[in-house]
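TOPIC: backbone geometry
CONTENTS: sequence, structure tokens:
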Amino acid sequence: MQKWTIIIGGKTLIVSKWQIYTLLLPFIFIFGLSLWSCGNFIQSGIANVNKLLLSKQRDKYMEKITEIDRMVQSLERRYSKIVFQNELLRTALDIPSQKEERMLGTGGRYLPDGTNSVLDDKVIMLDKKLEGMEKEQTLEAEDLSDLELNLTRSRKQLEHTPSIMPTWGRITSGFGWRRDPFTGRRAFHNGIDIANKEGTPVVATASGEVIYVGRMAHLGTCVKVKHGYGYISLYGHLKATTVKIGDNVERGNIIGYLGSSGRVTGSHLHYTIIKYGRDINPLDYILPGNVIY
């Protein structure tokens, strides 16, 4: 058996190979145990760091998702208000509703498999909400564009539709058949008579263009305004006029003054509305609250 001579502090020791192994074995064991413990400690530290990083990353994702969710809810509330106003306008303008189009289903975007985590479920839900809102907003944009066009047309038509009293006074004769005050015979009265003192302002009952200013047989001094959309208004027995042919007037503009020109029994205004060539009852085109009998 191989032996070694070891000199320690002047003393000579003769030991065998197995004796040396026996002396080194505890040190080797302790060293290995230390390495194993260090490895576990390092691995545990790395795992804790990764867990901490993942937790922080998850918290950031959750904060971002919560913020997006709040934004989506806010947009949904605004969208609901827009839809409500949209439906009110459609009802007022007698335009068909688009509720059925809003109820149409939408296909989902492509999502990878394995989306079972809480975060992925939240993302999927938000993704579907945002996709639905994109489709709804596209429909509403088109719808509101149509409504805006119809509203513009309707507003313009309303501005050019007679709707107010042409002067202040008392209605002394209505539209329709009556006994003529001069002949005593039954005759058709194609307008209404509004009595008041001479010089009372007479206004255009809707926007339009003056197409006639002058005398017209028994109606005396008259003004005719073409409003468009088939409407023409006529104002007779005027004392004086303030407009000329070709002038554009707006509702409420003074076009003359009440008088007693033509065939009359007293100062008053004869007011006629013509629609597509036919005389119609002016009282049907005066807003409630403005008529005095």
Remarks:
- The chain has three helices and 14 strands.
- The helical segments are 17-92, 99-102, 118-159.
